[in-house]
Design a protein that fits this description.
3 helices; 0% strand
Length: 132
């Protein structure tokens, strides 16, 4: 019978089938860095997509906004004409102006504004978002 000799690897030597394991902290840092990079990339793409959607929504509101401004101008013109008629003695027009005044809507002659006055959002001109 033969006796097999088992050799014990000395320090710095690898035994058969044994690989040196990677150190724990460097592997954890690498995984954490990859996770952070993937998360940041995903959030960046989401924000870019949302920004595009907001630009589309803003563009789709331009036409209704212009129509509303045109209608507002027409109503202001009609209100000024009614005020002129009331000032010239038309009783029906005077009744309309009185009823509007009771409801808090004032009509100014000339290039004045009809209504209770501008609200906070109406008084400021809104700028479109920057397109890059």
């Amino acid at each position: 019978m033969s006796v097999e000799r088992l050799s014990v690897p000395k320090e710095g030597q690898e035994g058969p089938g044994e690989a040196e394991p990677r150190s724990g902290p460097s592997l954890a840092v690498a995984l954490l860095t990859i996770a952070l990079l993937l998360s940041t990339t995903f959030q960046t793409f989401q924000l870019i997509r949302e920004r595009g959607n907001l630009h589309t929504l803003y563009a789709s509101q331009e036409s209704p906004l212009q129509q509303a401004q045109r209608v507002r101008g027409q109503l202001d013109s009609i209100a000024r004409r009614i005020l002129d008629l009331a000032q010239h003695g038309n009783t029906g027009a005077a009744t309309i102006v009185d009823q509007l005044a009771r409801r808090g809507i004032r009509i100014e002659s000339g290039a004045g504004q009809t209504g209770p006055g501008p609200t906070k959002s109406e008084g400021k001109e809104q700028k479109p978002p920057d397109k890059k």
